[in-house]
User: Fold this.
Amino acid sequence: MALERLRIIVNQLTVEGAEQLPTERELSETIGVGRRAVRRALEVLETEGKIWRRQGAGTFIGSEPAHPEKQFVALNEESNMLEVMEVRLQLEPVLARLAALRANPADIAAMREIAGRVGKADDLDGRELWDSALHRAIARAANNTLFLALFDVVDRVRQDAAWRHVREALRTSDAMALYKSQHVDIIRAIENRDPVSAEKAMRGHLLALQQRLLYQSAPEVSDAPGA
Assistant:
């Protein structure tokens, strides 16, 4: 039976440390069956996770490697604005606390410079660019490579072009004045080496964003993306 013969071949190649199977034609000749029978057996083995195939490259032994870049592309379609805020509330206050412990004077100077640009931005692109840059500067100052990578994943989802107008609608003059004040409080706490206040200030800032999101966008939560 083609399937059992192919199982033996796959197991043998696995023991030998091989990564790829011979071509369908070669397998057909080796086990003495038609290529159609080989193809069907390979489909079964692929379903079982024993092999994986790539168009134009061949058949490989084992499970197909993960492709995180494909997952990132799909995240904005599968997530929503409230999920993004839930993750930010868990991640960014911790980053602010760590930044208060680890930021150097250059980090703090950069935060102040970027915060000033956030306040001066007078269009959607500018506000998006500099607000994201400020939060990333805080994340970078936490000096934790893995945390920064997680921040970048969330920020990439948050910055999806289809979501920008949702966030922009929430940026009234009162809201912008509040956010500017909160940014100042976060940076001051980091500069003062006060991790408790930095964490609290960041959490308060994100909660204000979340509350505004809930208040103004509740009917669209199931469809609208992150803040």
Summary: Residues 69-220 form a domain with the Four Helix Bundle (Hemerythrin (Met), subunit A) fold (CATH 1.20.120.530). The chain has a mean pLDDT of 84.
